[in-house]
Amino acid sequence: MSKQRSEKPAGKAAKEPKKDKVPKPALVVFAFRLSAADRDLIHKAAGPGKATQFVLSAALAAANQDRTEK
How far is residue 7's CA from residue 9's CA, in Å, rounded to a whole number? Predict the structure, then answer.
């Protein structure tokens, strides 16, 4: 008896073309020194793991003179 040949699977599905990469804006590092007590206050105010975003937001608000008038 002869073996039956199995049918070959259809060709591979065509891949989608790659999307153009959008260049990310150039980031820079801005550093400053502060006391351990000040650092602890920032961490306490910001909550766990959010100190960097807290300080960034506060610094940008101050630079943009984003204040509420009372």
Answer: 6
Q: Identify the residue whose tokens are 């960097």.
A: 52
Closest CA to 54 of 62, 63, 42: 42
3-state secondary structure of 61: helix
Q: Which of 57, 62, 64, 55 is nearest to 31 (CA)?
A: 55
Assessment of whether the complete model's pTM goes beyond 0.85: no
Q: Is residue 48 part of a domain?
A: yes
How many structural domains are present in the chain?
Answer: 1
Cα pseudo-dihedral 50, 56, 58, 62, rounded to 10: 180
pLDDT, tens only, 13-60: 778 888 888 888 899 999 999 999 999 999 999 998 999 999 999 999
* Structural domain range at position 42: 33-64
